[in-house]
């Protein structure tokens, strides 16, 4: 396949807004980037995570296709929404995993076995999600910056385009939001 033309993605998204099956032509163009996002997300997860990048991409894409209230603007907007969808899937997955453990689905470990396990990342993801919700309530733009940069993998420039602000604003919001989230999560 040739290099991804962002203008082609934007053109197809505009067609999707008008109805029809433009989303079917979009998947081959965005699949690689969505898979890269999924891999980046899953690298932050626990090593034994049962969700694979391909499954995360397919679930996210199915949810994106079902979006009826979104007026697609451009490629960056699409990836921003895709990042939010992937985040929601991972949060739902983490909650289900935690629920399963509370319900007795977890295997009992000896103290020695538990000491060898890596830190449980589902709890970290849930804590981040809660902190991000609080941040978004206090300052919606800073919350969106975190979603787009951290979860969406967008650059400062792309984030600025999606939000309709200057890159300097995104850079300031990013620094403040990271510090706020760190303090919030450390206090939890």
Give a written overview of the molecule.
The chain is mainly alpha-helical and 188 residues long. It has one domain. It is 74% helix and 0% strand. The protein has helices spanning 6-17, 22-43, 53-65, 75-102, 111-116, 121-138, 140-151, 156-163, 167-187. The longest helix has 28 residues, at 75-102. Mean pLDDT is 78; it is low at 108-119.
Summary of the model, kept short:
Helices cover 74% and strands 0% of the residues. With 188 residues, it is mainly α. The longest helix has 28 residues, at 75-102.
Instruction: Tell me the series of helices and strands, N- to C-terminal.
Output: HHHHHHHHH
Domain module count: 1
Measured as a percent range, the helix fraction is over 70%
Q: Using only CA atoms, what is the Rg?
A: 18 Å
Distance between the termini: 47 Å
Structural class: mainly alpha
| Large-scale geometry | globular
- Note poorly predicted spans: 108-119
Kindly estimate the percentage of residues that lie in beta strands according to DSSP: under 5%
> What is the number of E strands?
0
Mean pLDDT score: 78
- What is the overall number of helices? 9
Largest sheet: none
Labels describing this entry:
single chain, 188 residues, mainly alpha
Layout of helices and strands, plus pairs?
Elements: H1 6-17, H2 22-43, H3 53-65, H4 75-102, H5 111-116, H6 121-138, H7 140-151, H8 156-163, H9 167-187
Helix pairs in contact: 1-2, 2-3, 2-4, 3-4, 4-6, 6-7, 6-9, 7-9, 8-9
């Amino acid at each position: 396949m040739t290099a991804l033309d962002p203008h082609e993605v934007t053109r197809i998204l505009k067609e999707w807004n008008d109805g029809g099956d433009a989303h079917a032509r979009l998947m081959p163009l965005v699949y690689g980037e969505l898979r890269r996002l999924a891999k980046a997300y899953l690298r932050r997860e626990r090593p034994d995570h049962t969700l694979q990048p391909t499954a995360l991409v397919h679930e996210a894409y199915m949810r994106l296709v079902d979006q009826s209230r979104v007026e697609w603007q451009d490629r960056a907007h699409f990836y921003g929404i895709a990042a939010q969808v992937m985040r929601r899937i991972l949060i739902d997955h983490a909650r289900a995993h935690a629920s399963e453990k509370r319900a007795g689905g977890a295997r009992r470990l000896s103290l020695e076995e538990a000491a060898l396990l890596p830190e449980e990342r589902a709890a970290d993801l849930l804590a981040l999600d809660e902190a991000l919700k609080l941040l978004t309530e206090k300052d919606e733009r800073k919350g969106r910056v975190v979603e787009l940069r951290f979860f969406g993998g967008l650059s400062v420039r792309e984030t600025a385009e999606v939000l309709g602000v200057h890159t300097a604003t995104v850079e300031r919001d990013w620094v403040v939001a990271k510090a706020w989230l760190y303090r919030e999560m450390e206090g939890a």
